[in-house]
Structures are given as structure tokens and as C-alpha cells.
Design a protein that fits this description.
- The complex is a heterodimer.
- Chain A contains 21 helices and two strands.
- By secondary structure, chain A is mostly helical.
- Chain A has two domains: 42 residues; 605 residues, Cytochrome c oxidase-like, subunit I domain (Cytochrome C Oxidase, Chain A).
- In chain A, helix 4 runs antiparallel to helix 17 and helix 9 packs parallel to helix 12.
- Chain A is globular.
- Helix content of chain B is 80%, strand content 0%.
- Chain B is built from six helices and no strands.
- The model of chain B has no long low-confidence stretch (mean pLDDT 94).
- The chains are: A mainly alpha, B mainly alpha.
- Chains A and B meet through helix 7, helix 8 and helix 9 of A and helix 1 and helix 5 of B.
Amino acid sequence: MENFINFLVDDFFVTGEPLIYGAMVSMALVSIAIVFVLTYFKKWGYLWREWLTTVDHKKIGIMYIIAAIAMLFRGGVDGLMMRIQLTLPGMEFLDSQHYNEVFTTHGTIMIIFMAMPFLIGLMNYIIPLQIGARDVAFPFLNAVSFWSFAFGALLFNISFVIGGSPDAGWTNYAPMAGENLNPGPSQNYYLMGLQVAGIGTLATGINFLVTILKMRAPGMKMMRLPIFTWSSLITSIIIVFAFPILTVALALMTVDRIFGSHFFTLTGEGMPMMWANLFWLWGHPEVYIVILPAFGIFSEVISTFARKQLFGYKAMVISMVIIAGLSFVVWVHHFFTMGSGAAVNSFFSVTTMLIAVPTGVKIFNWLGTMYKGRIRFDTPMLWSLAFIPCFVIGGVTGVMLAMAAADYQYHNTYFLVAHFHYVLIAGTVFGCFAGLTFWYPKMFGHKMNEKLGKISFWFFMIGFNVCFLPMYFLGFAGMPRRTYTIEPEWMPLSVTASVGAALMAIGFAVFVYNIYYSFRYSPRETQGDAWDGRALEWATTTPVPYYNFATVPKIEGPEAYWIMKSKGETTYDKEKVEPIHMPSDSGIPFIMMAFMFVGSFGLVWEWIWMAIAGLIGVLVCMFIRSFDYDDGFHVSVEEIKETEEKARGGEK
Amino acid sequence: MSADTDLTTGPLEYRSHEGRMNILGFWIFIGAEVALFSTLFATYAVMFGRTGDSPVPAELFELPMVLIMTFLLLTSSFTCGIAIHEMRRGSLKGLLTWLAITLVLGLGFLGFEIYEFVHYIHEGASLQSSAFWSGFFLLTGTHGLHVLLGISWATLLIVQLRQRGLTPVTSRKMFIVGLYWHFLDVIWIFIFTSVYLIGMVV
């Protein structure tokens, strides 16, 4: 018993850090509050029936987005903690170990548990609506994807109170992340958290690929697809070929750490550099996984608010295909300094610079779309307009980094940090905010408040530039990445950056407050087309009925809804309503991934019995699923007519 | 919904939208599996020769046993093809018979592989011995695990086929298991040549 208590205090729980005690208390309080609220309002059954067991792509999309915003908060707090520590020389807010943990979780969470789920959430909600489908191709698998992400994120996030956070950077380089230099469960959290979430991402990629290829409405040819759907299709292809590489890399390091193999170790002739190669073979395509859907969102928003058809649709598609192809042949540029030799570095230098070409094409297409358009400056458009110059700064400094010889100067300095924040925040985060505010009325039946939206935009956008522009100069001044204290001569720029970070935090807080405020006070949407939209998702009523389309329209060109509007067509043709086949809800995805969580937690602590127990649970769930011949159900014509006539206010 | 081509003719497994989507989805999954095994092959190639103090592969690899394994697995792919052929003919009995033969051959393959692994470990070449052997065991072991999974999966299907007979759903499941089984065979051909044959001569 005493041993057990000692284990809990010494190893299991993270002790001795006031900040983490605070986090523990707040987590306990929030958990108690949630349980209390659910019990008090008798919402457990509602939660289970409507959300935990759902296979509806719209609800899954919303859950993805909620989780992503929570993760944005957590990753953002990590970022703020780093900024506090780096504001002044000699700060003692975080010690070096804690600082290492914070930058590791910041990077990992922002990429894996914030950017991807945010975009996948939007894809989930919007793509079936844009192509005229009733759901995704594999609704059950879609629920598995979501729960694997959710439990993966949970596993990664509990590390900072149970066992300790990983601290080898989001790139988790060997041998630093190996068993010898980094014993204990913390690195295992990284490996297992990403592994569990990665399963879901791969499944999502397959799911959307089949959905977009096979479930388009009649007449919607590939070159009539809305551009966001195109970007998601290409993203899915990248996912399918990139994520298995991550799966293998994580598995190899897990086997290294737990079962003593020698892939990335310094002993037994292992090769630590192999990890860097495998990681970036996945990691670079991953960057495009989180940017291409954002490009798609900007294209939709800019075209809608410039009130013009997207300029250069074909060029947009072709450039995305080229970007996807190039994304697999540039990975070495992340470690030019590792000494691959002049020939190899030159090759990857050239391929990297080539990416600027299709990206530049896209920039000009957005400008061309706006040229002579009658532009409306609503919040989604503001995010998209801010994206263009900010992203160009990030892109051009990327070309500077691509030059191998020059990279020896910039490598692992704040110049790099500034660069990738400029592309990832101005690209992905602005894109997520633009997409969420743009599609918000479709999802929740009311717009986000414009005034608050603009306040949050200006705070965030100005804060972003104030925070990250100085970092380019800090990089030139020699400030290394991942340092936990600063030299006095970096202070003026560091203070500036911290002020910017505070402004961004205010912007985010206003954004979240706006969600609450709009829920309370925004006027409700009475019809589906909130922004005078052009693609098919706006043809549905708001709120979207769970079967999406009462009758699937025949698509006669690109911008399907624009054509429908001109002809006065809707997605409800009383004469043509037929019973609609829908999939049944299922609790198996949730339960299966809960077992996966248990098993992975066992592996993290190297308790093999627990890992095996979890694995057996997963297998049993798969077994049950294999024998489940539930064929779903049909929505009756009467129900469809009743729903549609209510939503359309008796029209037709 | 798109390309609403005829759903009343053609093989049973292609006669519903769900069936077609599942089959396409599985092809894409096989694409992902190709990426997965490519990574393992690349890792193995990089680790080639990095044996440290442990035995080199040429000392341990034995052609007869690997040839037996290869014949077992290749034959099982052939019998699996016959099983699908029987399914297309509408013969449940033929399907079950040839599927059972396929699984027995697969089990034989697995038995030899386990024997092989135990043998190597006795000779001092285990997962922990050196980078080369780590790469070897991970690559062949992952393939072996896939075979094991395929056998368990097909066994579940035998039960379902006996319960329900040949329906669009069961024949679609069977067809997909068939694809999976052939895919494992293709991977083995690459393992046979690039791991065993090269390992024996270098």
C-alpha cells in the first residue's frame, strides 16, 4: 500500500509545480461541474443518444470543431506561457524542463489536435452538403475517426498531470526522445497520443475520398465540384499516403522505447537521423494537409463576398494537385544542416522553391477573383483579406529558408519560428476562423455577431503581426529556437512580441464570447442562404434536416446553387420525394476507442497486461461490428414533407 | 447517386452502392497499406548491414524454409482466387471449401514464420540484437500480423456465410477479404526477393 502511494506521488501524478497543481484543481472542478450539470438537467441520455453515438456527419463535424477550439485554448495558453517566460531576460516563470514541455505540447497540440480537427470538422459538415449527399460514404467509420481523435487528444492532454508531458519538441527527434536520454512515460504519451489520433485521420482520408468520388449529385462532374471540396479531395489523397508513414515512424520508436529495438538508438547501430527523415516524410505533407482546406475556404469566401465566380478555377485545381505532388519531395529542407551533402540539399532546395509557383498562382487567382468585384466586408471576408498579405510574407520567407546555403544561417532560429507561424496562423488559423464564421449560420441557425467578430478580428490580426514580425528580426539577431531565456539585447523585440501575443489572446477571448453572445442575441436565420451563397450547401434549409436533401437537385454547372437560384429551384420537389435511406446510430465507435484509450494508456506506462486488455476490448468491438447487419432505416415521405414544409414556411 | 449505372447485373458484390463504395474504399486502404509497407521496406534497406555484434543474415537465412513459406502463401493466393471464382458461380459450398484450404495454407505459412523467428532468436538474432534485426523483425512481423488478421477475419466471414449464404453483403465482404489476401501475397513477393534472396547473397 505504501509502495502504491509512493508510486502515485513520485511517478504517476506530476508534483511540485504550483502551476500544475492549479491546473489539476481547475480540471477537477470543471469535471465536477460538467457531471453536476448533466445530472441536474438529466442530460446523460441526451448526450449519449444525440452525440456520443451519432453517425451524422453534421454532429460529428460540430464535435470536431468544439474539440478543436478547446485545443486552441490549451495550445494558446502554452504559447502565452512561453511568451511570458521570454519577455524579459532572466525570467523565472518556467524552468528549463517545464519550458521544454510547454513548447512540445504547444506545437503538437496546435498541429495535430487543433488545426487538423478544425479543418476536418468543417470538411465533415460542409462536404456532403456541397456535393448533394445525405452523409459521408462510411458514417460508422466517420464516428470511429472522431472518437479516435478525441481519445488520442485526451491521452496526450492528460500527460501534464499524470506522468509528465513529453519534452523533445513536436518533432520528437531521436536520440533525444529515445529511452536512454528520456526514460519514463512522457515520450510515450506523444507516441501513443499521435498514433491513436492518426488512425482516425487515415480513416477520414479514405472516407472523404470515397465520398467525393462516389456520392456526388447527378450532374456534378469533377470540374463542377465546389473548390473547398476539391481542396478536401486533394487533402484526403495526401492523408492516405502520408499518414501511414507517421504510423510506422511512431510504431518504430514505440518498439524502440518499450521493447528495446534499435531503429533510432545510438547503440546497436541504430540511426537517429532515420527518424528525422521519416518524421518529415510525413511532416511536410502534413503541412499541406492543414493548408489546402484553408485555401479552399478562402476561395469560397472570397468568391462569395466579391460576388463573382472564382477566377481561374481550373488553375486552382491544377495548382493544388501540383502542391500535393511536390509536398512529398521536399522533406529534407527541414534538416539541410544535418549534412546530406551538396547534391541532395540542392535537389530539395529546388523542389522547395518550386512550391512557390503553384502557390503564387493561387494568390493571383484570389486577387483576380476580387478584381472588379463588389466586395462586402463581412467578418469572414476580413479574415480572408488579411490572409493574403500575411501569408505572402510567410511564403516569401519560406523561399529564403529554402535556399540550402542560406538556411545554415536561419536554421533553428526565431526566423524559422516566425516563418511557420506566418504560414500556419495566417493560413490555417485565419482560414478556420473565416470558415467557421462563414458557415456558422448553416451550422447553428444564426450568424455570429458582426461587431464582435470585427473586434476579435482586428485584435487577433494586429496582435499576430505584432507578435511574429519581430521574431524574424530576433532570428537575424541570433536568437535560437527553443531557448528558455533571452539575452538582454533581444529584449525590446521580445517585449513587443509578448504584447502581440496578449492582443491575440484578447482576440480569441472575444471570438469565444461572440459564440455565447450570438447564441443569445443574434437574429435567427429564417432561410438557408445566409450570405447569398453560390455552392450547394446554401440550398438546404437552416437548420439542415438530418437527411440533408429532401430531393437531390440535378447539377447543371459549377456554382450549383447560383444556377438553381436563377431558375427558382430548391432541394424540395414535392413530386419527387422518396423514402430516404439513413444509417443507424451506434455506440460501438465510442466504446471501441475508449478501449483503445485504455490499451494505449497501458502502453504509455508499459503495463503490458493493460495494453492487452485494451486490445482485446477493441477486437471484441470489431467482432461485434462484423456480425452487425443493421441496414439503417428509411425516412418516410410524410416525415420529409412535414419537415420541409415547416422549414420552408409552407412554400410550394 | 453519381453514374447510376446498372445495379442489376454484374457480380453480386457490385450490385449496391454500398458494395461499390466499400470496395473502392478498400482499394484506397490498400494504397495506404502500400505506403505503410514502403516505409518499412525503406527502413529495412537503410538498416541493411547494420548488424553490430549479431549474426549477419547470410549466416541464418535458409533457402528451403523460405521457399516452402513462399509456396504456401502463393498457393493460398491461388486457392483464394478459386474461392472467389466459386462465389461468382454462386456456389457457397465451393467457396467455403476453397476458403478453408486457403486459410489452412495461411496457417501453415504462419507456423513456419513463427518457427523461423524462434530459430533466429535462439541463434542470437532478435529484435533487440541490432538495427538490422530490428528492421527485419518489424517488416516480416508486420506482414505476419497482417496474415494473422486476415485469417481471423476470414474465419468470422465463414461463420457469416454459413449463417446467411451468398448475399450482396456477404459476397462483398468476401471479395474484400480476397483483395486483402492477394495484397499480402504481393508484399511477400517483395519480402522474399528484397529481404531473403538479397540477404542470402550479400
